[in-house]
Structure formats: C-alpha cells, structure tokens
Design a protein that fits this description.
alpha/beta, Alpha-Beta Plaits, 5 domains, 23 helices, 44% helix
Length: 688
C-alpha cells in the first residue's frame, strides 16, 4: 500500500485549509528578508549575520517541505479513510432505524436498527412498500425539503422523516465519475417511534376539563303535578339518575339549587356522553311516580383551551342556547362550534304570562326611547311574518312613533294583504319600504324589530342590523348556532305557535287602550291560521287566547279563509306533488313540487307538505321545490319526528314540526338524494 502511495506522490498536493499554513511560512520569510535589509542598512556586519540566519531558515523550510510533504499527505489520507469508516460504522449502529431508497421506492441500504425493526438483512432490496404498505414512492418529497409521514407497523406508530439527496452534489469532487441521463437522487428515511408520545398526547387530551350546567326544564310544573308527599321522592329519583350517569363517565356533579346542577367532566367522559347522545335526556323522562308531566332536562357544556373560568362561560352560553331552542336537549360548545343532541320532544307550553308582560313593557320602553321604528321579517315574507310586522307597527303608532315595514320581493301570498293594508293607512301614509329606502332612513335613533326569524342571514335586509344599536328580536323558532348579536331585547319562545301569536300576546300587555284595525287583526289572525294549519298543529291555550283577542279587534274568519283560496294552477301543482310522493324508509314522504307557471311555488310546496301528513304511517313529509336557482325544502311533522334537527343538517332550521332549508348549486333530484342520505345517517346515529 505504501509503494502505491509513493508512486502517486507526484500527484499529491496540498489544498484547502491544509495549504493555508504554507502561506504563513512564506509571509514569515518575507518579513525576515525585510528585517535583514533593514539591519544591513544600519550595520553591515549585523546585516550579514541576520542574512545568514535568513538563508538557513529558507533552506530549512524547503527541505522540510520536500522531505515531509508526501508523508503528511499520506497520513491525511489514512485519517480520512479511517474517519470514513468510523462514519459508516456509526451510521450502521445508529439507534434510529435508517434506510436509503431509490426514488421509485426500491430499498438500497439499511442500518442495523432498521434490519432489527423489519426482520430483514442488509441484502433485502425490494420495494419499501413491501415492508410498509402505508408508504410508497408517492409520499417521497419532490425537492430538498423534508417531508414527514405517520405509519403504523407491528402495533407501533412511527413518524418517518424523508429527505431527498441529489447525487450531483456528492459526485462533483470525485475524478473519473461522470453523471449521464439527467439528475439522479436517493431518498433517506428516518423512522422515529412516537407510540409513547402519541399515548401521552392522547392522555393529555382526554384529561382536558369540560365544565357545564344541567337544568331541569319544567321543575315547577312537574312538582305541581304530583302529590306533596311524593315530590321529594320524585326529585330524589331524578337526582339519582343524573348523578349515576355523570359518575359513570368519571365526572363530578354538584347541586346548585332546586333543579340546577354544576357538572365537571374530562374530555374522555364527554366523548362517551356524546357517543350515547346524552342518554340521560331520555332516562330522566322514564321517572314516573304519578306525575302527569315527564321531567325533562337541558345540558350545556363548554370546552376551551383556556382555564376553568373560560370553560364555565362557554358552558353557560351553551345552556342559554339549549333553553332558547326549547330545552330537553344537550348543547356542547367548543370555541365557536356548537353541537346539538336530543330535542326530540315538543316544548311544553308555559301557562304563566309573566315573561310576555315583562317583554311587552321592555319593548314599549325601547320604542319610546327612539325616533322611529322599522320592522322586518325573513326573506320571502309569508303571512305570519307580515302579520307580526303589522302588530309591531300598531304598537309603535300607539305611542305616536312612525313605523315602517321592510319588504323585498312581494309574492302572491301576501300581495292582497299589502294592498288592503296600504289602502287603510290614514292619509295615505307610507307603510312599506324597500331595502334602499330602509337603509337610507335607519340610524342610531331607530328601533329595529326583527320578527319570525333569529338568524341574520335569513332577515329581509341583513345590512340594517349593522346600522343601528337598538335591535329587538321576536321569534317562535328554535335558536341555532347563527343568531343576531347584541340585541337589546330578545324574546324567543319555541312553544308559541307563530310569531303573530307572540305579538298578539305582547299587545295585550303593551297598552290597555290599544285597538287594532280590522285589516290588521285579519292579517295577524291569518298568520296564526297558517302556522297552526287551521288550529290543528302546535295549538295551545295561549294560541286560542291570542286568536280571541284578535277576534275582539274585528278579525273575521270568513274574510281570512277567502284570502287563502288558490287558483287552478296552484291547486293542480299541489295535487301533483302529493300524487308523486314516495315513502322513504316506510315513514318519510318525499316529493318534488313542480314550479312552472306558479308565482309562489315555495308556498305551494309547503301546502303539499302539510297535506302529506294526512297519509297514514307518515311521520314527516319533505317537499322540494326548484325556484330562482335554489332548491327549497319544506319539512313538516306532527309529533314523532323533529324536522328542525334534520333541516339543520341540510343547512337550514326552523321549528320541531315546521322547518325548511335552501340548497344552492344542485337540482331537485340531487337534493332528494342528499336528503335521503341525511335521513339514513341520522337514523343510524339514533338522532331521530
């Protein structure tokens, strides 16, 4: 080996950093020559002596270079060779599984840990996907940036860091090696076992706290329905079921007062509650020791990444949402996401009128404190929305405040009523505004009243919500995740049959001397008739009392009934929708209502959905109508199915037995398929 090295010594030379030390030797010689010249100038003898030493120094450096150059280079080569072997041995014994593959995935080399992991030897050169099916060439990085992939192997989880290495940078300093056919590369794979790390992360996730509230919705009503001697027993049985349920998921529950609890549960326990869809909601209803009314509970749970205080605030917000939606349900709030469970039963009608009286007085104060009142309902205004708007206008005029109703496109269902209402205005005063007029008129001294909807996107003119600071919301639909923010007064009563019923009740406590015009009473009465399907659906004691109040103010059933008569094309379209209805899953009637030639096809679709409920065995009906590049779904039910939660899955909402949705970008047939998928999925989940 030494002979070969010596034969090649002529080819050996210093380079790089090794060469730099000779530059210093040359610099020292130059300085020595300068010193010699200086001394010689001062003293000839001294200069000759220094010059002699300079010659000796130069000769010594030359002889050292000639004699030791080859030996130094050979020693450097030996060190480099040994260091390369050490590097290779270290990589081979690297404690992290490491492998090199070709761009197509073929295995080139693996270290000992990789061989131990896979049970293969170093001669294994098949594709990496034969060892790890979850990984193939498609996962490799396309450039020099590293890429990571998580895989599972032998019941362990690994993070594979992949790095593409270009061979051109490795071969450019090697003589006698030339690349052809474009750039070549290899891919280096590092396998890091993250099983324990993921387990710790999962444990940390599962232990995150969630704080919530649990309320008995109808505590007072249920207790009044049983004998005094049994009340404590009933409360104890319900308390036991609630405590047992929360304890079964590792949670803690503490009673705050009668019918109200504070609960704390970790994320793992909450997931268990979600999986069984809060079965305690149904379990509590089974407690019966003679009570004529079943107990129902509402649950609101908050989750955040902050502390317990933030969780509690989120839980309180979730409880407010559960109660606003009618109770008998659980709401989980995580940041801005809301999840709803339960809510299958109709909210019991409250006999007390205290809330209505309080809201009526608050409404009067807000109207009195501003210069004018603007009222609007939802898009595609129907008779219930129009009737409620008319009632609020009468309330404003009772205290001498000008009031206006915002309308967009007027459909055939309300056009006759608008004509009558405008004709009965004193002195021909303007009652209705379009969007532009309303935007121009509204200011901070305007009270904006929203009726028959609580979703900003569904209001007649959403822009008005951001142009005033006094907003009143009156609605009988259950509240969803989307709601009008910063309302000065919000009165949402899901147990009410219609918005007209709510407004009629408010008017009775608004002013003792209030009187409606005959046309106004007729309009509000018509709103109640439509939403209750002629006093058949969702009709309670307070519904009849509101109707009686309107009758006392001149409402006439004959005039109202005449206003509901349809033309022949509308009647035929409704009959066609009923005739072509299909029974899906044996209990859901689904049909498509033709819209050609109809001025207001969505109303016709809603009427068809009502008629389909008259068929034996139909629990809910869904009629789809194509109109103005959208598909409108009218959903109706009696008491066995909550169509509101079904329509919420479709992007809509509404009430338990009257709901709807609007779909864009698809036709009626595609909407029918999507509806069937939602019904199938919710049935499997037990949500309906």
């Amino acid at each position: 080996m030494d002979k070969n090295r010596m034969d090649n010594k002529a080819q050996l030379r210093y380079s790089g950093k090794v060469m730099r030390h000779w530059y210093w030797c040359v610099l020292v010689v130059l300085l020595q020559l300068v010193l010699t010249a200086a001394v010689l100038y001062v003293n000839t003898l001294a200069g000759c002596i220094v010059g002699g030493f300079t010659v000796v120094l130069i000769l010594s450096l030359v002889l050292l270079d000639v004699h030791y150059r080859s030996r130094v280079l050979i020693e450097l080569m030996d060190f480099a060779h040994k260091f390369s072997g050490i590097e290779k041995e270290m990589l081979k014994n690297f404690l992290v599984p490491y492998a090199i593959v070709q761009p197509d995935g073929k295995l080139v080399w693996m270290n000992d840990m990789m061989a131990e992991l896979t049970g293969k030897d170093a001669d294994y050169h098949k594709n990496i996907s034969t060892l790890f099916p979850a990984m193939n060439a498609a996962h490799f990085p396309l450039d020099e940036e590293a890429r990571s992939l998580e895989i599972e192997y032998n019941e362990r989880r690994y993070r594979v860091d992949m790095k593409r290495v270009w061979l051109s940078s490795m071969l450019e300093d090697l003589e006698g090696v030339e690349q052809t056919g474009g750039e070549s590369c290899i891919v280096a794979l590092y396998f890091f076992d993250i099983t324990e790390l993921l387990a710790f992360k999962q444990e940390n996730y599962e232990q995150k706290p969630a704080v919530g509230l649990l309320y008995m919705d109808n505590y007072d009503e249920v207790m009044e329905s049983v004998e005094d001697i049994r009340r404590s027993m009933l409360e104890a049985l319900v308390d036991r079921k609630i405590t047992k349920y929360v304890s079964s998921v590792g949670g803690l529950i503490s009673k705050l007062e009668k019918g109200r609890y504070l609960l704390v549960v970790n994320r793992k326990g909450l997931e268990t509650m979600v999986e069984d869809r809060f079965s305690v909601l149904e379990d509590v209803k089974t407690v019966n020791i003679g009570n004529s009314i079943n107990m129902t509970v509402s649950i609101g749970i908050g989750i955040s990444n902050e502390d317990y205080v933030q969780n509690f605030e989120a839980g309180r917000g979730a409880m407010e949402m559960a109660l606003a939606r009618g109770g008998d349900q659980a709401v989980v709030k995580e940041q801005d996401k809301l999840s709803f469970f339960g809510g299958k039963t109709q909210r019991a009608e409250r006999n007390t009128r205290v809330r209505a009286r309080v809201k009526a007085q608050a409404l009067r104060e807000l109207i009195n404190s501003r210069d004018r009142v603007i009222v609007m309902g939802h898009k595609m205004t129907d008779i219930d929305s129009l009737g409620a708007c008319v009632g609020i206008c009468r309330a404003a005029k009772q205290v001498n405040k000008p009031a206006y109703i915002v309308l967009g496109d007027v459909n055939s269902g309300i056009r006759p009523w608008i004509s009558v209402l405008e004709a009965n205005e004193n002195g021909g005063e303007r009652l209705f505004l379009d969007h532009e007029q309303a935007i121009e008129m509204i200011n901070y001294n305007t009270t904006l009243v929203v009726v028959d909807t609580n979703r900003p996107s569904m209001t007649e003119c959403e822009e008005l919500l951001y142009l005033t600071r006094t907003i009143v919301v009156l609605d009988h639909h259950r509240q969803g995740a989307e709601k009008i923010q910063n309302a000065s007064l919000s009165y949402i009563e899901p147990s009410a049959s219609s918005a007209c019923e709510m407004v009629a009740e408010i008017l009775q406590y608004y002013d003792d001397g209030i009187r409606l015009k005959q046309s106004e009473a007729d309009c509000m009465y018509a709103g109640i008739v439509v939403d209750t399907q002629n006093f058949v659906a969702k009709t309670g004691m307070r519904t009849f009392e509101a109707a009686a109040f309107l009758r006392r103010n001149g409402a006439d059933m004959t005039r109202v009934r005449k206003s509901f008569r349809d033309d022949m094309s509308t009647y035929k379209a409704r009959a066609e929708a009923v005739r072509h209805a299909e029974a899906f899953m044996g209990c859901y009637a689904i049909s498509i209502c033709p819209s050609d030639g109809l001025e207001n096809p969505t109303v016709t679709g809603a009427q068809a959905a009502n008629e389909l409920l008259n068929i034996v065995g139909v629990k809910a009906s869904f009629v789809l109508t194509e109109y103005m590049n959208k598909v409108y779904i009218s959903a109706r039910a009696m008491d066995e199915v909550n169509v509101q939660i079904i329509m919420e899955r479709m992007g809509g909402g509404g009430h338990m037995d009257i709901a709807g949705a609007q779909l864009e970008g698809i036709d009626a047939e595609e909407a029918r398929v999507r509806l069937k998928e939602v019904l199938t999925q919710m049935t499997k989940e037990g949500a309906i």
